[in-house]
Amino acid sequence: MTVSITDVARAAGVSASTVSRALRGRPGVSDEVRTQIAAVAAQLGYTASRSASSLASGRTYTIGVVAPYIGRWFFGTVLDAAEQVFSAAGYDVLLYNLGSAEARKRFFTKLPVRKRVDAVLSLLIPDEDESAALRSLGVPLASTVGGARPGFTVVGIDDRAGAESAVRHLVNLGHRRIGMISGASGPLHWTTPVDRRTAYLHVLAEAGIEPDPALVADGDYTVDGGERAMTELLAASRPPTAVFAQSDEMAMGALRALRRHRLRVPEDVSVVGFDDHELADVVGLTTVAQPVAGQGAEAARLLLRQLDEPGAEQPPGRVEMPIRLVLRETTAPPRPRGPQ
User: How many helices (H) and strands (E) does the chain have?
Assistant: First the structure.
């Protein structure tokens, strides 16, 4: 005989709605009662029916995720952390990887997520028309990139402040020839490269350093791109004594290029990155640490809160996560060798 939620409720001495909330990890149930209900359900062999729950609640128990480049570390880490939170709450993830302009246009024209998801997590920055299209779905929306925008809860960091701390660290060490490996060819509409470049120029101006276009190169936010960019910077008539890479992956590529040119880090060239990639500590990289996984998990929790408490106070338009400069072995004062 099939065990129903009513059977579990009767055996546990609680209501069926309490059983439902407890087994799906919803708020409003104490840990003691939740444990008791889980034990009773296991004893009776009760398994919640996803289809029955969907019919009763009108939900799909699916979260849509749109992303530009899942193969890149940042986006993959955010997605993995968010998926763990969704999964623990009983939700599946429907992923759309929009890495090309064509795929992106097709998605926002057809909106295949309509009536298929309960909420959307965006790992890309939608323009005004794309934002309007997502709002038309009538579901909670969250993002982990870009600034605040109407209808979205955005979980992110202060990119300018982080980049300023990295470049200012190099200035304070005494460097004057400071290069930058940027990500100008990053994902569509991505504001991060612009914000970090603005911060770089601001700190140089603050220190009275004239920016040199020959000391800026595009690294495409990849290790290989960082290596190519560092090689380009070394070919300048007056190469840099220090380099700020807008991501740790590009910084790692820069370290590889310097090694191949038989240059020592930090004795010959200092390098600072951004992210605190899981391998940053392994290579001793000085970097700006940001909670990448934490941003994905927090965005997921905020979406679930909107679904579980639809009548509650509106979520914040932007949640700013903490960042910090982590000093390791790749930065040091420049060696005295003439004008720097």
Answer: 12, 12
d(CA 299, CA 121): 8
Q: Which pLDDT value is given to residue 185?
A: 56
Q: Is residue 325 within 8 Å of residue 280, measured between CB atoms? A: no
CA distances from 203 to 209, 280, 340 (A): 8, 24, 17
Per-residue pLDDT, 21: 77
Cβ contact 175:155 at 8 Å = no
Task: Give CA separation, 204 vs 209, 231, 246, 249, 327, in Å.
Answer: 5, 22, 16, 23, 20
- Give the integer Cα–Cα distance in Å for 163 and 103: 31
**Along the chain (340 residues), what's the average pLDDT of each consecutive run of 10 residues?**
82 87 74 85 75 59 91 92 90 92 92 94 91 94 88 94 98 98 70 92 98 96 96 97 97 98 98 97 98 95 88 80 98 76
Query: Which tokens go with 42?
Result: 């296991």
Q: Name the DSSP class of 144.
A: S
Say if residues 291 and 322 touch (Cβ distance below 8 Å). yes
Pairing between β-strand 270-275 and β-strand 318-320 as defined by DSSP bridges: unpaired
Residue 133: closest CA among 146, 152, 147, 148: 152
Helix (H, G, I), strand (E, B) or coil at 172: helix
pLDDT score recorded for residue 55: 46
**Cis bond upstream, residue 266 (ω within 30):** yes
**Secondary structure, 3-state, 173-232:** HCCCCEEEEECCCCCCCCCHHHHHHHHHHHHHHHCCCCCCHHHEEECCCCHHHHHHHHHH
CB 26, CB 308: distance < 8 Å:
yes
CA distances from 68 to 55, 71, 139 (A): 33, 9, 21
Model pTM above 0.85: no
Q: Strands, DSSP E only, in 258-316?
A: 270-275, 286-289
